[in-house]
Specification:
- The structure is a single chain.
- The chain is an all-alpha fold.
- The longest helix is centred in the middle third of the chain and has 72 residues.
């Protein structure tokens, strides 16, 4: 990349950077800039992780909506089946019911 400079402090551990900043071993602002770069990178990684989790949750929500529709139709089918069984029971037992009730 044209104009890009190499960063010698990029290979240092965070602990070494803090020590260098406290002792004044590095040029003023260089260590702070590297620490800010690392902070920005950590925030970006955290943001990416949140976005990935959000997409996963949205996918689960979409599938649960589909499941909700299936459960709704299954309940409706069971209701119709129950009403049908009740009606069939009444129709088949109607002569006996008339005799028991006296009409």
């Amino acid at each position: 990349m044209p104009g890009a400079t190499t960063n010698a402090y990029q290979e240092w551990t965070s602990h070494d950077l803090v020590i260098a900043a406290s002792r004044g071993d590095a040029p003023r602002g260089v260590v702070e800039a590297e620490m800010m770069r690392r902070l920005r990178e950590a925030i970006d990684n955290g943001t990416n992780a949140i976005q990935i989790q959000t997409r996963a949750i949205e996918g689960q929500t979409a599938s649960s909506d589909s499941l909700g529709r299936r459960i709704y139709w299954l309940n409706l089918l069971l209701l119709l089946f129950t009403v049908g069984i009740f009606a069939l029971t009444v129709v088949l037992t109607w002569p006996e019911l008339r005799r028991l009730w006296g009409f």
